[in-house]
Design a protein that fits this description.
Layout (H helix, E strand, L loop, with lengths): L1 H32 L2 H17 L19
Helix pairs in contact: 1-2
């Protein structure tokens, strides 16, 4: 739990911020290719849920509840 609090949560926050920036930059291209929602989930939603919604010290299977829909 301590490693999660000191290492994983700050890295998750950094990943969320960087993923959001990458999503903003890539969004015109993802709109053209039809992968806008999928890239938004992968770059913004998953890192945010990893950082803010999982229990402290709970690592295994944090992405198993989510379904990736190929559109």
């Amino acid at each position: 739990m301590l490693i999660d609090l000191i290492v994983a949560r700050p890295m998750g926050l950094a990943g969320t911020v960087l993923g959001t920036a990458a999503f903003i930059v890539a969004s015109p291209f993802t709109l053209l290719s039809g992968t806008f929602l999928q890239s938004g989930r992968r770059l913004v939603v998953y890192p945010a849920k990893f950082t803010f919604t999982r229990g402290l010290g709970d690592f295994p299977g944090y992405m198993e509840d989510y379904q990736i829909v190929e559109e």
